């Protein structure tokens, strides 16, 4: 088990290393700066981190230690112990970022440090045992996270560590990168995989309805409430409530959600008695929540409450080595699997993917619909709209090709193709895609959901 000690003061660092070596199961690594720590983290994973908040004692404004706490938590849900001489404001900030405990440098001793390290070592051992036992009982949800790249290996490690906790999780990443699959993996690896998994898109409901969807309501609570309705907080039981596009949640409801997270209780609209919330909240967004906090569009206290455990999904451009495996995976799901030339796969690997994995999947789906021969770079360019043919002639040819296909729901194929192109032009924004198509956002969501794997066992990234 590896522990990383980061402190610019050599004497303090050596003292902590000396104390930690009383635990034979710990392999202790040292770093004197944020840069040194960053280089170590790039080379290997760690199980525990002990970080000094002021990595340059000569600079009173230094915040490298605080920045490193955030970096370590973003890379993996690693338990962090912070150390410092003063500055309770920085300590509070570090705890908000997910630090496990803190130590005062003036009081460093075996009696204080060893009990904390022992608890963390025992916790890490139990987490690994739980993960091993669950992997034997259930099919691995990691099978849906395709790719051998280092970025995906880190993501799988983070998901395994996060899943054993019952604290809120914030999943961030660009549209189409696979946030929902990561959330489903957290649920499947968690303490109650047999309990419900419910998802609510915070941007898909008007403000007047979303409160009732979340909390439920009593009969007569408002005009039109002719019967009692159970909300998501009730229906999820001990399972996982996935709040997608959390940045779109109205400010008034952000305050109510914060209260649920802090007290584990909620009150349906029109009810006089509070009820206990037993489940777990996982939120996701592609927006920059810190920027929204600065603009007053998102509550700072809710951001810190959700951001205790953060999972960042890498964009496809950050994991290009996974593209051949993803192409093979999506191709294997086609009714008529295709033959890709080496040059075609390399072209896909080097192409820009603003729509991320979802866009790549849709390209493979489109090729399977419109292609009967070997897939070459020229064919990919033609179907991607980069050929020199006029758009009208290309569209006419594609329609004729679809109509000639045997035993296929041609209308459904064209619908999927239209939605796919609208999503590409709108860079993955469902509302903008719906506007291009002249339909409601829910129509786009339904169409996209039908192209996904079944919700009970997702098989590919979105």
Automatic annotation (TrEMBL):
Keyword Transcription appears in the UniProt entry: yes
Record PROSITE patterns: RESPONSE_REGULATORY, SIGMA54_INTERACT_3, SIGMA54_INTERACT_4
Residue numbers carrying 4-aspartylphosphate: 52
Superkingdom as given in the UniProt entry: Bacteria
Organism: Pendulispora rubella
Keywords: ATP-binding, Nucleotide-binding, Phosphoprotein, Transcription, Transcription regulation
Protein name (Swiss-Prot/TrEMBL): Sigma-54 dependent transcriptional regulator
Domain Response regulatory: 2-120
């Amino acid at each position: 088990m590896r522990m990383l000690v980061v402190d610019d003061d050599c004497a303090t660092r050596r003292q902590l290393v000396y104390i930690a070596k009383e635990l034979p199961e710990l392999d202790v690594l040292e770093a004197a700066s944020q840069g040194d720590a960053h280089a170590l983290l790039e080379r290997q994973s760690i199980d525990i981190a002990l970080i000094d908040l002021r990595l340059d004692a000569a600079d009173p404004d230094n915040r490298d230690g605080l920045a490193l706490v955030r970096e370590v938590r973003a890379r993996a849900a690693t338990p962090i112990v912070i150390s410092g001489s003063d500055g309770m404001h920085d300590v509070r900030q570090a705890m908000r970022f997910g630090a496990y405990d803190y130590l005062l440098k003036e009081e460093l001793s075996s009696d204080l440090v060893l009990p904390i390290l022992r608890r963390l070592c025992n916790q890490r051992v139990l987490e690994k045992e739980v993960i091993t036992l669950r992997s034997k009982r259930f099919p691995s949800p990691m099978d849906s996270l395709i790719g051998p790249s280092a970025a995906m290996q880190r993501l799988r490690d983070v998901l395994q560590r996060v899943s054993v906790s019952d604290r809120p999780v914030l999943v961030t990443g660009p549209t189409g990168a696979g946030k929902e699959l990561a959330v489903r993996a957290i649920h499947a690896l968690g303490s109650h995989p047999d309990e419900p998994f419910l998802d609510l898109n915070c941007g898909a409901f008007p403000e007047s309805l979303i409160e009732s969807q979340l909390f439920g309501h009593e009969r007569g609570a408002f005009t039109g409430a002719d019967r009692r309705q159970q909300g998501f907080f009730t229906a999820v039981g001990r399972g996982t409530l996935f709040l997608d596009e959390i940045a779109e949640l109205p400010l008034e409801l952000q305050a109510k959600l914060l209260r649920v997270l802090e007290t584990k209780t909620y009150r349906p609209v029109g009810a006089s008695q509070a009820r206990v919330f037993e489940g777990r909240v996982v939120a996701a967004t592609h927006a920059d929540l810190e920027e929204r906090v600065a603009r007053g569009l998102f509550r700072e206290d809710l951001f810190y409450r959700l951001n205790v455990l953060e999972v960042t999904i890498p964009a496809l451009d950050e994991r290009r080595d996974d593209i051949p495996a993803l192409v093979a995976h999506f191709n294997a799901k086609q009714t008529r699997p295709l033959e890709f030339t080496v040059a075609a796969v390399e072209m896909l690997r080097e192409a820009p993917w603003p729509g991320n994995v979802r866009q790549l999947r849709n390209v493979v789906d489109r090729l399977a619909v419109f292609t009967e021969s070997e897939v070459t770079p020229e064919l990919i360019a033609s179907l991607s709209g980069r050929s020199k043919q006029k758009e009208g002639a290309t569209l006419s040819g594609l329609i004729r090709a679809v109509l000639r296909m045997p035993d296929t729901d041609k209308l459904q194929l064209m619908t999927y193709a239209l939605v796919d192109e609208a999503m590409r032009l709108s860079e993955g924004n469902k509302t903008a895609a719906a506007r291009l198509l002249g339909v409601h956002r829910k129509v786009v969501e339904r169409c996209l959901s039908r192209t996904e794997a079944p919700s009970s066992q997702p098989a590919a990234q979105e």
